[in-house]
Amino acid sequence: MAGNACIARYGRFRLSMRESRPNLSAMMIRLFLAAMAASFAAFGLWSLLDPIGMTSSLGVDVGGANGAYEMRGVYGGVSLGAAVLMAAGAIRQSLLRPALWFLVTYLGGYVFARAVALLLGPAPTPDFYLFIAFESLGLILALVSLRANAGR
């Protein structure tokens, strides 16, 4: 009987050790969200502080007060808001899946629109292929992360 109690305690100990051990896929997902948060934050700050410089460096002409105002809101504000959600998802388990779903929706919209734009033409300058690659890779990693984190 004492042997059974010892085995039962050992089994509970092993179970609690397994639960407390960090899950490698969960850590990778959190690192992915943290990297995305940093990317969104950097782009958002750049867009907020220098919207005309940001757009002109990409070969996009935006002028006037309304153009700068719009770039600050759309690229600056939305990107900073996304950065906050990605950081929160990296820190809090309860926000991890909502952050991933946001990425799937947001980046999925970009990938879809860019694919349509490539079909309709004209083709963008080579600089924009970096954006297409970033958004496509981000979308794929977000989808894989959602799948790896299913049911949690």
Q: How does this structure look, described?
A:
The structure is a single chain. This protein has 6 helices and no strands. It is mainly α and 152 residues long. The longest helix has 28 residues, at 64-91. The two termini are 37 Å apart. The relative contact order is 0.11.
Question: Into which percent range does the helicity of residues fall?
Answer: over 70%
Summarize model confidence as the mean pLDDT. 86
Summarize the main sheet: none
How many structural domains does the protein architecture include? 1
N- to C-terminal distance: 37 Å
Number of strands: 0
What is the H/E order? HHHHHH
Which range does the strand content fall in?
A: under 5%
SS element count, helices: 6
Please give the radius of gyration in angstroms. Answer: 22 Å
Q: Structural class, from secondary structure content? A: mainly alpha
Low-confidence stretches: 13-20
Shape: globular
